Amino acid sequence: DTGVSQDPRHKITKRGQNVTFRCDPISEHNRLYWYRQTLGQGPEFLTYFQNEAQLEKSRLLSDRFSAERPKGSFSTLEIQRTEQGDSAMYLCASRGDSGATNEKLFFGSGTQLSVL
Amino acid sequence: AQSVTQLDSQVPVFEEAPVELRCNYSSSVSVYLFWYVQYPNQGLQLLLKYLSGSTLVKGINGFEAEFNKSQTSFHLRKPSVHISDTAEYFCAVSDRASGTYKYIFGTGTRLKVLA
Fold this sequence. Notes:
heterodimer, B: mainly beta, six-stranded mixed sheet, 12 strands
């Protein structure tokens, strides 16, 4: 169990540029989540995948955000035409299939995005 | 929509003193409740969870929480804190009855243990 990996750890970009983040969940986990966290706030839900299917997406999520999990393993989160308000820590989490013992999210260390 | 309220943004406490971190959630038929901890420069990790059954749940590092349905609360307690408990604590809820898989987190409580 190597944990949830996120890449890059830090990203600095200029307003208007596109950015893409990658998340590698724990290998046997079929459920994957993306969250966003800003200073002084808790993680805010963005989207949820079960295998390769994107089953839930926050209504607050702008059309500039898109996420994929093409083979049900790693996932990418892309932000197009970044804005300064997108600056945040982007967290990925994974968990196993249904069942009490799997009601536990494993979080990565996050990607810190700074939009200048 | 489901929501979580953590009333205290910061809680300072002396080492070996007891602590309670408060969490309230909006009412629902059935919810799963969680406490996660984030140590400095580390990712969030699960401290404990309530899914059903006994309302008193025990977690790692000597923490426990009590589910109170009538007060829609899930407060976290520890009888004697250590310096190493200094961290940010997040309460979270999942409302499966509404058909969602997401976990909703509170704004966090920063616990500062003083020597």
